Amino acid sequence: MATVSVGNARPRRAQGRVVAITGACTYLGTELIKRLEEDRRYAKVLVLDVKAPAILAAGTTKARFFPIDLTQPTIDGDIATLLQREQVDTVVHGAFLSHPTHATEWAHEFEDVGTMHVMNACAAAGPARVVMVSTTMAYGAHPENPNFLDERAELRGHQDSRFINDKVRAEKQAARFAREHPHVQVATLRFAPILGPTINNLHTRFFSRVTAPVMAGHDPLMQFVHEQDAAWALKRAVDSDAVGPFNIVGKGVLPYTTVLALMGRVPVPLPFLLARSIAKALWATQIVSTAPSLLDYLLYVCVADGSRATRDLGFTARFSIKRTILDFVGASPEDGATDVASSFA
């Protein structure tokens, strides 16, 4: 059988490949399982999560579930043993929260420390390829941002957001792993905010409200990627040999107020300081699910350049921003559509 040799790492087969996925219960994890199930080049898919995703109940021929809790102190050894025993050639690390939580200490253990466990396991097991999920929000929303941020831009994060900063720290761990293990192919996908009719995340919850806050005097450009394009990009990254960070973005950008108009949402103009005070109070009482620090993304542009993904990964979005918005509005998540307690939720 033909193999793809990558230094001292486990050879990546041209056929009969074995993939392990953390965060398999997420939208991207589940969609990746579906696509690997249909691809004859892949022989086995290891599903690593605290519970089995619903897709397994429908029956699969390749996927096998292994209960893994990334917050456990010695889980890296268990994962390494599993990767070696099952001869995994590609690890996809997608165990990240899709929206902020008030349980910040647990979230830190899950994302930051959990990524450390995954990277430790990969260092011990030596897969040929590691693909990690991230977000363009890691660049941060800042007044000095250019119109389009490429992958060389600093990951500034946000001084008040554990939700974003844990992802920045996870990216730095992946970059350090890549430097220390040059024989392993490491790719990180920074997804623009993902919208679609089935995904449930920070942005679908925010835009499912009837009203939406608008920071007085600010109307930043917005960028999204359709859920189907996002799933396709992740599969491309698993198939590919390309390494490094990649911005995964949709077609086109629009001003925030235009986005609200297309969605049929009612804009509520507010001074930023007042909006932040209200949001802080609502977040502290756990009435809403949007952290106040994320209001900065309604102030300043945070739009990424996707040309490197087109050039090196072979990914170009198929859905325009307008089509993405209309698909989302046509079937928004039920929990977001029915809960209108606040403009900030």
How much strand content do the residues show?
15-25%
Radius of gyration: 20 Å
Mean pLDDT: 89
As an assembly, this protein is single chain
Within the largest sheet, what's the order of strands?
A: 5-4-3-6-7-8-13
List the helices and strands and how they pair.
Blueprint: E1 3-4, E2 12-13, E3 17-22, H1 27-38, E4 42-49, E5 63-67, H2 75-85, E6 90-93, H3 104-125, E7 129-135, H4 162-180, E8 185-191, E9 194-195, H5 202-207, E10 211-215, E11 221-222, E12 225-226, H6 227-239, E13 244-248, E14 254-255, H7 256-263, E15 266-270, H8 272-284, H9 307-313, H10 321-330, H11 334-338
Parallel strand pairs: 3-4, 3-6, 4-5, 6-7, 7-8, 8-13, 9-12, 10-15
Antiparallel strand pairs: 1-2, 11-14
Helix pairs in contact: 1-6, 2-3, 3-4
Features:
345 residues, 19% strand, disordered C terminus, alpha/beta, disordered N terminus, seven-stranded parallel sheet, two-stranded antiparallel sheet, Rossmann fold
Question: What would you note in describing this structure?
Answer:
The chain has 345 residues and is an alpha/beta fold. The protein has a domain at 3-192 and 226-249 and 304-317: NAD(P)-binding Rossmann-like Domain (Rossmann fold). It is built from eleven helices and 15 strands. The strands form five sheets. It has a seven-stranded parallel sheet with strand order 5-4-3-6-7-8-13, sandwiched between helices. Helix 3 (104-125) links the parallel strand 6 and strand 7.
